[in-house]
Specification:
heterotrimer; A mainly alpha; B mainly alpha; C mainly alpha; A: mainly alpha; about 70% helix; C: about 85% helix
């Protein structure tokens, strides 16, 4: 209980410091700390799957993305921003935001007792999927449509980011060119960490059917293992016109939809798995989707191609 | 008990994130505040999931799975926002 | 035997916490980046190492113990890489103060 209080206080302190920081770099550094502390809060809320995702995506990949953006914006002339709100306005905004938080807090305190829960239904139906991890069961079977739409959102995000390519850059290698380092700690890290990281990612994907883990966490780690050599200048990302790259990003949702349609034909419902086939089909979807999401996440962090001026 | 505590913390985070979004003027900080706000909303939802613990699970797995999906979607939206900001800055440089 | 293991765990984790506190104090109180890094890397590694060591008897088998050691190793490698990078950033591109 005391540990929870301290953790909550630390998260709130880091959050406040992050939005009040004078420099964007400081704000992003605090935001990464916020993400890591938040994943501890998820552990305390018995949501280990969410904790892993928060640490990998909320803190890790978002941190890399925002730090890169800070770096690229710092070398440019400061864009003329809107004037900040005056003191009276700031106080008013503060009061209004406090009201929103207080209303939400009141809702938390007034939640119905006993809490409504779908846990018994999940527990009753989990054996039909052959899975041991209830969250994976929900993601891949009971609420598979959400997961399918979400993989489509990630694919769509890649298309949107690519569509921001400036004139003359289309089809080229994504992202700003990274400086090639002759030696140094980052290069060393980029050489020794990926083999280990890939093993960890495969492990997390594989245990995801019975224990906390799964495709999103594994995909985030795989994406990081690609981004690391890219940032060290060891590898250049493939051109976005490359056919294999586009196929890899798209194959996950496509396989998911195909298996869903097959269920519609054989079982009479979209995304229904034939009895006894649930587990192997889910594994196929998980593995293919991991590859797609890993590549998509890395491409999202790298950004659209930047043509040389 | 810890569910209520973290739920209240999530509510406070929503307020903090909203404040940052409205008061800070740099676009990058607004994106960051938006993510802070999103984290608060996920935590509120997670507290609700924790209260639904039962049948041998530490929390209701359905909201937990939806939160997991939400984090990935929020990240995809953030990357798009950052790409837009960088593109805008590049356009301003050129003109 | 189990009492001995408990005592070992408590002593090692407490020792680790002392190093963590010392490292945090150094991070907050030291004047410049280099000495802050010194406090962070030295103290936190030893702190984490002692905590991992203390938790080893409770890992419940070989797999858990190996995972704990792997976590320690990964933290060592990553901060060994990050420390020099931060130091280089503060020294600037030409290596001057």
């Amino acid at each position: 209980m005391i540990a929870d209080l301290l953790l909550a206080a630390a998260i709130l302190a880091v959050a406040v410091a992050s939005i009040l920081a004078r420099r964007t770099f400081t704000a992003v550094a605090l935001f990464i700390a916020y993400g890591l502390l938040l994943s501890l809060a998820w552990v305390r809320l018995s949501a280990i799957d969410v904790a892993l995702t928060e640490a990998a995506i909320g803190a890790g990949l978002s941190g890399v993305l925002l730090l890169g953006a800070v770096r690229r914006l710092a070398s440019r002339a400061e864009a003329p921003a809107n004037p900040p709100p005056g003191a009276a306005m700031t106080v008013l905004i503060g009061i209004a935001c406090a009201c929103v938080a207080a209303a939400l807090g009141a809702v938390i305190l007034l939640l119905p007792e006993p809490a409504p829960s779908l846990a018994p239904q999940v527990a009753a139906n989990l054996p039909t999927t052959g899975l041991g991890n209830p969250v994976t069961g929900v993601l891949m079977s009971f609420r598979a449509l959400d997961t399918l739409l979400e993989s489509a959102v990630v694919l769509l995000a890649v298309i949107c980011v690519w569509s921001l390519t400036p004139d003359g850059g289309w089809g080229g290698a994504p992202g700003a060119a990274q400086p090639i380092l002759g030696d140094g700690p980052l290069l060393l890290l980029a050489r020794i960490l990926p083999p280990l990281g890939i093993v960890v990612a495969v492990h997390i994907l594989w245990v995801g059917k019975d224990a906390p883990g799964g495709k999103f966490q594994a995909a985030a780690i795989l994406a990081a293992m690609w981004l690391l050599p890219w940032m060290a200048g060891l590898v250049a990302p493939p051109r976005i016109a490359a056919r294999w790259l586009r196929l890899t990003v798209a194959v996950g949702p496509v396989v998911f939809i195909a298996i869903g349609l097959a269920g519609a034909v054989t079982e009479g419902a979209f995304l229904a798995y034939p009895p006894g086939w649930a587990m192997p089909l889910i594994l196929v979807i998980e593995i293919v989707l991991t590859a797609s999401i890993a590549v998509a996440l890395a491409l999202l962090v790298i950004g659209p191609p930047v043509p040389e001026p | 008990m810890s569910a209520t505590l973290f739920g209240l913390m999530g509510a406070a985070l929503v307020g903090i994130g909203l404040f940052g979004m409205l008061v800070r003027t740099q676009v990058l900080l607004r994106i960051l505040s938006f993510n802070l706000l999103g984290g608060g909303i996920f935590i509120v939802f997670g507290a609700v999931a924790r209260r639904g613990a039962g049948a041998g699970f530490g929390g209701d797995p359905v909201p937990q799975a939806i939160i997991l999906t939400g984090i990935v979607v929020a990240f995809a939206a953030t990357t798009l926002a950052v790409a837009l900001v960088l593109r805008l800055a590049a356009n301003q440089d050129r003109s | 035997m189990s009492l001995l293991a408990d005592v070992f765990t408590i002593v090692a984790v407490l020792a680790g916490l002392v190093f963590f506190i010392a490292g945090t104090a150094g991070l907050l109180r030291f004047p410049d980046t280099a000495s802050r890094l010194h406090a962070l890397t030295k103290a936190d590694h030893l702190g984490l190492g002692l905590i991992v060591l203390g938790l080893l008897p409770r890992a419940g088998g070989m797999g858990g113990a190996l995972r704990l050691l792997a976590i320690w190793g990964l933290v060592l490698v990553s901060s060994a890489a990050v420390g020099p990078m931060v130091a280089r950033l503060t020294r600037g591109p030409e290596g001057r103060e």
